[in-house]
Amino acid sequence: MDALIASRTVIPVLTISRASDAVLLARALVRGGIHILEVTLRTPAAAEAVALIQAEVPEATVALGTVMTEADVALAHRLNVGLSFSPGATPALLKAARDARITLIPGIQTASDLMMAAELGYHVVKFFPAMPAGGLAALKALAAPFPQTRFCPTGGIDEFSATQWLALPCVFAVGGSWLATPQDIEQGNWAAIEQKAGRIKNLLSSRAL
């Protein structure tokens, strides 16, 4: 987690409908310089896709996304993923993740969400959905009373706004589906995905965030 917080990176949010696409997708992103990949639990192929990437693309760190239930926590444990994301947070989910000793970054949107997460020991969270929830101004205001908390905004962020979010001291990463949209994946646009990954990686490298 310390290494992730220091990375100031972009995490692609991936919805994979065919497990057979997983390795080609992961390799394209890694070639572009992006190594932390969030595979969402939005399709039946997700678990197989995670296992394939873990087996065949060792340069990638696979995170499990859309973790919402105790069963999802158990799946994250079985898959031995290094990191999991949830769109929201409930006491039951946070306690299950803590008991299973998986690294969960829970989704929050309000001060009450943050207070509940902090009570259970969570100080690294996802701000979701970032743009509909008020964008940069909302996160700045929300983060002020919680100086110990670090955020990964996700939802409505794109290539052009990613660096604005990462310039905030409280933000350690941003998530987004623009790097590899469901359409790109469905059509096998691996070269385009690699190019987008390379552009954002170069942009981040060229700016002192």
From TrEMBL:
Molecular-function annotations in GO: 2-dehydro-3-deoxy-phosphogluconate aldolase activity
This protein's record includes keyword Secreted: no
This protein's pathway: Carbohydrate acid metabolism; 2-dehydro-3-deoxy-D-gluconate degradation; D-glyceraldehyde 3-phosphate and pyruvate from 2-dehydro-3-deoxy-D-gluconate: step 2/2
The keyword Lyase appears for this protein: yes
Class of enzymatic activity (EC top level): lyase
InterPro entries given in the database record: Aldlse_KDPG_KHG, Aldolase_TIM, KDPG/KHG_AS_1, KDPG/KHG_AS_2
EC number: 4.1.2.14
Gene3D superfamilies: Aldolase class I
Catalysed reaction, written as an equation: 2-dehydro-3-deoxy-6-phospho-D-gluconate = D-glyceraldehyde 3-phosphate + pyruvate
Pfam families in the record: Aldolase
Keywords: Carbohydrate metabolism, Lyase, Schiff base
Annotated family: Belongs to the KHG/KDPG aldolase family.
NCBIfam families reported for this sequence: eda
Subunit architecture: Homotrimer.
Protein name: 2-dehydro-3-deoxy-phosphogluconate aldolase
Native organism: Lichenicola cladoniae
